[in-house]
Each structure stands twice: as structure tokens, then as C-alpha cells.
Specification:
The complex is a heterodimer of chains A (168) and B (557). Chain A has eight helices and no strands. Chain A has 168 residues and is an all-alpha fold. In chain A, helix 3 crosses helix 5. Chain A starts with a helix and ends in a 16-residue tail after the last helix. Chain B has one domain: FAD/NAD(P)-binding domain. Helix content of chain B is 25%, strand content 24%. Chain B contains 13 helices and 23 strands. In chain B, helix 1 runs parallel beside helix 7, helix 1 packs parallel to helix 13 and helix 6 crosses helix 12. The radius of gyration of chain B is 23 Å and the shape is globular. The chains are: A mainly alpha (168), B alpha+beta (557).
Chain lengths: 168, 557
Amino acid sequence: MRIKRRKFLILGSLLGLSSYVKAERTTDFEKEFKAVKSTITAVQEHMFPKGSKIPSARSMHVTTFLYETITHKSFDRDIKAFVVEGAEELMRREKGKFTSMNRIEKEKALRDYEMTNYGSTWLSRMMTLTMEGMFSDPIYGANIKESGWKALGAYGGFPRPKTKYMES
Amino acid sequence: MYDVVIIGSGASGGAVAYTLCKAGYKVAVLEKGRLVKKEEFSKDELAYCRRDLVTPSLFDEYHTIEEKVDGKWVSTPTYESGWSFWNGNIVGGSSNLMSGMLHRLHPDDFRLKSKYGEIKGANVVDWPISYEELEPYYALAEELVGISGHYESHAYEPKRSTPNFTQPPTKENRVVKLIDKACHSLGVTPLVTPRAVLSQTKPGRDACYYSNFCGSYGCSSGAKGSSREALLKPALATGNLTLLTNTHVKYLHTKSKDEVSYAVVVDTITGKEKQIEGKIFVVAAQAHESARLLLNSANKHHPEGLGNSSGELGKNLIFSGGGSGQGELHKESLKEIKFDELMTTGLFINRTVLDWYFIDHWWDGKFKGGSVEFMFEHQNIISRARKNNYENGKLVWGEALGERVVKRMTEQKNIRFEIFNDWLPNDNCFVSLDPTHKDKYGMPVGKLRVEGHPQDVKVGKYIAKKCEKILEEMGAKNIYSGVSSSPPQNLVAGGCRFGDDPKTSVLNKYCQSHDVKNLFVADASFMPTGGSVAYTWTIYANAFRVADHILERLKQV
């Protein structure tokens, strides 16, 4: 039996359906995303730090990519709302202090969050969206100078895209 | 008014259009998706493999899927589950995106009931035609679509009317040396996989340039034998084909009981409705959607759906049974070939095993088995980097993630096998109209009940164990396989069975409706049983056969 995704995403959040409804309106979504952007960036940077064998989130514009991809009409609107809701939930759990925590504190906060089904799903989604930016064609702006591909020794096929799918 | 109106531009729609346009008839192909020309296709993993760019948004158009949970049938809309049953809604359909590993059915696939008798809980029947009747069309499809390969005699390889393929196999990765050696040492016969990819140029189409990304992607050279490239392009060149894209058919209208007069279509861009008139209508919208269209075309003459006097419309939907397995080939344990050779990208594996297509063993028994294809794990970068990043139930991140992903991507390559065995038709696998849910055009969506037969899983597991031994013999590590009754949504057939008896079948042996004389269904819907290989070659071949019959009919009009 396939999981009823939407029900899971909504019921799993302590914040309920509010974001989902609001996310229908683009301008509201922009504001909502802006409010959680630093938290999302901090999570991405914790997952993909400097000094790793793969490029760091900080060096790869992955938050910009994440915003561009989830706001395109082809992106699942439930997951789009979930991205913001999950970040809001993390902020609420950590009383708004997550972004100012040191690395050890962030690790604990995220591992605690991961203990919940909801948090685990959200963190998994963050990793997917970050990797999508880092290892997709450089045209999307987050695989800068193919450094994601170079790290893995794996390169996209030809022909490469001439435009972002969001622009076609 | 067109001579023939074809609904759907995939493998079967393309084959019918090609034949009729070449013969000088005026044909309209109605395709709900857009035209993506080969120059537009790129190897953009994000666009083609991770976003719904070539299929409808599930919030606009979806299915409801019925599965048994705790003994009760539970229906879930696919926008809830994310489990899409759309397959390439662009000109050429899913043939644009196929891997192209094609096989003919075996002659005994046409007479499964006669060969193996009744199976409890399965609705197996013989086909009304034989392999010999379809063989010339398999040969025609091989030539026109462009299937490369190398014929080797084998007990379960069907006979051919031509000695060999006109195109040699595509270039192969050296890993085939390991597969061949492992198979031979286990007494298994590896065969070269026929593939709908050109190894040599053909007029108007370039040979494969081995870009490393084939299955799931549109082809930029024209090497892949998609309906769009191989059939619709030459059909358009005749000047007889009108290709109407972004045109979704809501239903077919019959003024009298035995004749379709027009299709009611909606422009998916403007939302405007219009009628398309034709002398003959050919439905080729992919199995479950073809049945849905005919069910949605119910009227006072056909209250249970168009051409459904038998009550069989939508029933006996089938998928492909089987599953897959995988093993890891590690740099440090590779002996027969060099690691660089293994890591060379772009080349095909082209290895099939048919040894277990039919089982007749003193201990295991006598039953229908299946076929096996070998391939590398799909080389998509994001999906390979993203998978298996858990340890003790927790996501791995930070420096440990970097170590893990780089090691996996640079020091090993994963080899896979896929098993294809019959999905036995049964009473709990069918498509009907959902009583509540409607698509954005106001038409009831297809409701798919998708239960498999226990025999399907039994057969799949039997073959998987043998395949695991081949991987083991190759020196692969961490071997596993998964066989389940979950349907692969891209391998679907049935729902409009053909047969000689109008009381038990929807179509006659020419895939013409028993009830409505100018209505044909040319896609995989006609198949009463599916065989144990991917359907595509049979879809192409049968559609050429149906087209020949339509030609004869048009000559009489």
C-alpha cells in the first residue's frame, strides 16, 4: 500500500494545514520561504560542510536552486509546502535558535528532529533537494564549474540542456 | 473528414499512421501531449527523470489505484501516493523513453492455455492468431523501427523469416565477458539482446553515439526506434498526416449503434472543444487509457461503454510480472577485465537469458517461466548519489556522506538483472471508471485494481535465485533481488481482449470492435496474455498487422 503522502505531510506537522493553504498564493509563499531561508541554508550547510570529499553547500548556491525548483509549476505542491513547514517546525522546536547554534548543537538538534517521522522525512527531502542542485547540470546554477560531477567522477550525457526546464 | 482518426501517437498509433499515410490515405493523429523534436531532447536528469515534464501533473490528471489492505479494497488517488501511471505523454509516447530491449513472443505464448491448461484464479485463454500470422509483422517492425542484434539459435528463441538482424548489435561494455563466462560456467546460455537502437546510420537517422543516458531519455540522434522518429516523421513526409498535438480526446460519439461519427476533443492549451470526424477510428492511447476512453464514451446505444456488449471492456488488465536484482562489482576484486573497462560509460550490455522461459524440470515441475535482461544500474548521477545514504536507520551527512558517496561512485559499479514473466490475467486486475474522481476536463478518471496472481511472484522468485547465482559467479558483492506483485506502470496491456467470440472478447482477431464496425483498438489492450518479455515489439508488429487490415477495409469503402 502506497503511503497517502498528502495526509502524512499534513497530519505529521504540528502546524497543520496552514502553510499548505497559503502556499497556493505565490506572493505568500515568497514571504514564507524568506522567513525560513536561513534555517534551510543552515541545514544544507550542516549536511554538506566544507572539508568533505563532495563540495560544500555554501560553495554551490544550493538554497537558490532549491527555491527555484520548488516554485516551478511542475513541482509537487504538497512537497513545496512541506519544505517550508518542516523548516518552521525545526525553528519552533529549537525556539528560533537553530541558525545561531554551533556545529555540535546543530547535530544534536537535527538528530533529535530525525527521531520523529516527520523530521526524518523532511531531512531526507532536504538532502534530496540539495543533491539535485549539486549534481544536476551546471545550467541550474548549483553545480558550479561541474565541481559536483568532478567530485564523483561522473558526468552528464550529451547533448547537455541549453535552457533550464523552468524557462522552457 | 479524415479517412482515419488515430487517438494516441505511441508505438501502435505510429505504426498505423505510417502504413495508412504511405498508402495515400488522409490520417489525423490526436495526441494530448506536445511535440518534442529530437533536437530538443537533452540528457537533463533533473528535467526528464525527476520532474513531471513529459507526463501530466497528478493534480490535474490522475488515476485511482485499488489495492487490498487488511482484506478490503482501498482506493488511493495517485496525487496522494505520487505513484504515476502516465508514461510519456508527448508525440511518440513512451517509445521515446524506452530502453529498447525488445523480444518477440514465443509461439507458445499464443496458446498458453492449450500448453499449460487452466491455472486456478487466472483467466488464461489462447490467442485467436498464431505466431506464424504475426511473424511477418515482427520482421517488418524490425526493419522499420530499426532493431539491432544478432540471432543465435536457442530452444526458446522464436523462428525468423529472415536469417539475421540487418543491423549488428550496439557496442558493448567489457563486462559482458564476465557475464558470458559466468553463464557458461553455470550451464546457462547468454544471448545478445535485440535493441531498438541503431548501431549504424539509416536514411534520416543517425547511429547511436553512446551518450551513457538512454532509457528514460529521448534520443537526440534518432537512433532509438521511437514511434516519433521511426514512423511519424516519415508519415508526416507523405503529406497525408495531420498531427494534432495538445489534443485530448474526451469521448467518441456514435450517431448510430454501429459507427463512431466523431471524437470530441479539447485543446489542452485553450480549453476549447471541437469535433474531429473520420471514417475509421483507431484507439491507441495505452491500455488502461484506451479502455477508459471507451468506457467514457457510453451513450444510449452503448450504455456500458463503447463496444462493451461482452461486458469485458477494461477487464483482464495485465502488467509484467517479475522483479529485479543487483550486485556490486568492486574495483579491488575485479580480475577478468580492467576496472577502467568496467567504468567506461555509454556502452550497452546486451545480454539476455531465455533458458528459463519455459520450465520443465524433474523436481521443479512444468510451468511458464520468463526472460532476463542484464544491465548496469541506471547511470543517472543524482539518483545514484542519493541512494543508500542511511546507516542504522539514520541519514548519513557531513564528511561521512562525502566519503561514502565518492567511494561508491568511483570504486564500484552495480550490475542489475530484470526479470520479465507473465502477469496472469485475473478478476482483480482491471480498469473501470471512478465514480467520484474526475480529471480537469470533467471526465471520470480510470480506477485501476491491480492485484497480481500468486504464481507471478513464485515464478519471479524462482528465476531471481538463478540470476543471483550468475552475479555471484561474476564476483559481485552484496547481491540482492526483489520480486513483488506490485505492477510496473510502464508495462501495461490488456483491457480490450481480442478473440473470436463476441460474448467473451471486446475485439475480433483484427482488433476491430465486435460491436462498432469502424472502431479499432491498436495498442497493447488486445493482449489476452502478455508473454514474458517487454511488450513493445509485439505492439509495433500487431499494429502493422491491424493497419494492413484497415487498408483492406478502406479499399472497399
